[in-house]
């Protein structure tokens, strides 16, 4: 088995060459291709706890954690047992079943602003469906989103979106028809004047204002509570609906996500990641009168062959019950805060520029330079240091060579889990101190 700092990547390189012949860029989701950092993507063979093991036998402390859902780490015993039990009963029915009912009751009984919920298979599908509901409910067509917030790869919101697009030459995707993009109004994050102006001009046409309350797909662009509250107030003043995209933050920053922490009650909310325990899942929910517009109760059509998949539902039930039982949020917050402070101090000894870790709950993002803002916190795209991509690539490969796996993009966040050990966190800090910037 390879040891940190002495890795062999022969098998990963061979797999990548094969994969490029049969899949676009050799991957099935863009950032996995290492386009933003360069080098050879690692092909992961298995994972356990807080570690990934690739096909060459290299072990990595994982801070990508499958992009967020694994709050209890890889192969959590409770989730694994729920999945094994579900598999003995069959893995898809194409019919009504009790497992989605149990998960829906668990969510709606604990989250007052989710009166009804519909399960789908991804966050993209959830947002797409929620927008359709908003248009039907209001009779309006335009959508407001915020620059850098990512809401999945549906056409109407794939406009200055972030996530994998942050690594591309253009922030907009090819293949999005101009007339579709024309229904989307994009305003800057952390700019209430711009939002007010957009709503004053277009508010009568806007069906929904969509926002990641913790924007975490183009950097961790922390928004103030005042900004989020004003967005909610102005949205309602103009008769539009408020959509919180909590695919990342839901059940991650608190059981009720940012809506719980800010005490803002969205009309619609989208979830994903944690509610499936690591299995493909998404959900949209909200006010009962809005959700009752969805077929078969109402005229808004949405369907899915594998929606409410029993295995994913059982994994989600196990995960959410464990969150309620253990309430890990304060502990994760404290450990993430300590880790961020230690990383900054270690980087100060080796980096020729300031390195700052922006953090919220157990989400972390390394800012490679001075944020271009008054308070030193990047809250919008224009405040991210222009050298972020190039500088992060060096840090990424320095850590990778020492057995630490971050999301392979300078614009994606890292996730702390409950199973990261003190020894593993010590190794991360040591690797940062040894990195060559």
In short:
The protein is of the alpha/beta class and 437 residues long. Helices cover 35% and strands 15% of the residues.
Q: What is CATH's topology name of the largest domain?
A: Aspartate Aminotransferase, domain 2
The rough form would be described as globular
Note the total helix count: 13
Q: Just give the CATH class of the largest domain.
A: Alpha Beta
State the distance separating the first and last CA atoms. 28 Å
Percent of residues in β-strands = 5-15%
Q: Regions with pLDDT < 50 over 5+ consecutive residues?
A: 161-171
What's the architecture of the largest domain, going by CATH?
Answer: 3-Layer(aba) Sandwich
Number of domains: 2
Radius of gyration, CA atoms, in whole angstroms? 21 Å
């Amino acid at each position: 088995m390879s040891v940190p700092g002495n890795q062999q990547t022969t098998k990963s390189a061979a797999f990548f060459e094969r994969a490029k012949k049969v899949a676009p860029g050799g991957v099935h989701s863009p950032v996995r291709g290492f386009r933003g950092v360069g080098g050879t993507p690692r092909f992961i063979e298995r994972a356990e706890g807080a570690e990934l093991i690739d096909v060459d036998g290299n072990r990595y402390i994982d801070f990508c954690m499958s992009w967020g859902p694994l709050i209890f780490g890889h192969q959590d015993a409770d989730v694994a047992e729920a999945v094994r039990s579900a598999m003995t009963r069959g893995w898809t029915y194409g019919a009504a079943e009790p497992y989605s009912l149990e998960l829906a009751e668990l969510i709606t009984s604990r989250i007052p602003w989710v009166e009804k919920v519909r399960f789908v298979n991804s966050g993209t599908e959830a947002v797409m469906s929620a927008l359709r509901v908003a248009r039907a409910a209001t009779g309006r067509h335009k959508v407001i989103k915020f620059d850098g917030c990512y809401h999945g790869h549906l056409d109407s919101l794939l406009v200055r979106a972030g996530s994998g697009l942050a690594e591309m030459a253009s922030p907009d995707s090819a293949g999005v028809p101009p007339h579709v993009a024309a229904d989307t109004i994009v305003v800057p994050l952390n700019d209430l004047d711009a939002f007010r102006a957009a709503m004053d001009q277009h508010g009568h046409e806007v069906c929904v204002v969509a926002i990641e309350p913790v924007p975490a797909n183009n950097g961790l662009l922390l928004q103030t509570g005042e900004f989020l509250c004003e967005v909610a107030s102005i949205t309602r003043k103009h008769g539009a609906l408020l959509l919180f995209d909590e695919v990342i933050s839901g059940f991650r920053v608190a059981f009720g996500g940012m809506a719980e922490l800010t005490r803002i009650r969205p009309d619609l909310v989208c979830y994903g990641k944690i509610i499936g325990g690591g299995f493909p899942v998404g959900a949209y929910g909200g006010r009962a009168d809005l959700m009752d517009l969805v077929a078969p109760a109402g005229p808004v059509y949405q369907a899915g062959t594998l929606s409410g998949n029993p295995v994913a539902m059982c994994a989600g039930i196990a995960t959410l019950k464990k969150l309620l039982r253990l309430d890990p949020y304060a502990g994760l917050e404290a450990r993430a805060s300590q880790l961020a402070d230690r990383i900054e101090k270690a980087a100060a000894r080796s980096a020729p520029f300031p390195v700052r870790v922006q953090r919220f709950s157990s989400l972390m993002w390394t800012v490679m330079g001075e944020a271009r803002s008054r308070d030193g916190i990047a809250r919008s795209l224009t405040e991210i240091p222009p050298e972020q991509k190039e500088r992060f690539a060096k840090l990424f490969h320095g850590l990778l060579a020492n057995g630490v796996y971050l999301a392979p993009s300078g614009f994606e966040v890292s996730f702390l889990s409950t199973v990261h050990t003190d020894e593993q966190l010590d190794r991360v800090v040591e690797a940062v101190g040894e990195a060559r910037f």
